Amino acid sequence: MHIKTFQGGFDKNLTYLIWCSSTQIAALVDASVESTAIVEYIDSQGLVLEKILITHTHFDHIKYLEDLKYQFPQVQICGHPHPEEQLAKNYRPLNHREIIPIGTEMFTSIHTPGHYPDSLCFWNKKEEVIFTGDTMFVGRSGRTVSSKSNISHLYNSIYTELLPLPEETKIYPGHHYGYTPSVTLKENKTLSPFFQCQTEEEFIQVMEEFEKNRRIT
Fold first, then answer.
1. What CA–CA distance (Å, rounded) separates 189 from 174?
2. pLDDT tens profile 161-181
3. How far apart are CA 111 and CA 119, in angstroms?
4. pLDDT of res. 192
């Protein structure tokens, strides 16, 4: 499997192009970066874009979806069963723990509400990679400051769904907010108090401290 990263969009957004080495079938994770360079790269590599996987429907993650649908009218849009925004006629709702094939590569959809109700992560067990959207970044979790956020749900998503995955799983987040674009789960646990909490109350305290310092700086 190959992964090509594109950065741009609203705020250091990351869109990922992933493809199967043996079939050249490809998918995008999020539509958050201007599409010209992405389309040119797909064409240059002779790839067949089959799916766009949406981590959640905050505006910055779907900003260029219409452009991509225009370029690839047969592409299948995949996301949460109950998206906050209606995305396309050819929309495929993904159940929790549903398997999504990209050629011969298999991804598992993991529902991870908290930052947003329709948040999803996409995990490839064999390749030990996960695309975490705004649920988990390098060094911290997503924020829970919008009206549809829920910090208890986020805690459960991180500590029940993501942190128990194999430690060498590499995180590919929705924004480049850390010292490096991606890290393993093990590294993230080591470097960040967000992922060292023993209780939900402790996690809430870490989040509150982060928000307080963010306002100060």
1. 18
2. 999 999 999 999 999 999 999
3. 6
4. 96
Between CA 176 and CA 186 the distance in angstroms is 18
pTM for the whole structure: 0.96
Instruction: State both tokens at 123.
Output: 């995990």
Asked if 57 contacts 81 with a C-beta cutoff of 8 angstroms, the reply is no
- Spell out the alpha helix ranges (H) of the chain: 36-45, 65-71, 151-156, 185-191, 200-216
Report which residue type is found at 170: K
Instruction: Locate the domains of the chain by residue range.
Output: 2-192
**138 in Cβ contact with 116 (< 8 Å):** no
Tokens of 178: 């850390």
Sign of the dihedral through C-alpha 26, 27, 28, 34: positive
Residue 60 DSSP class: G
CATH number of 2-192: 3.60.15.10
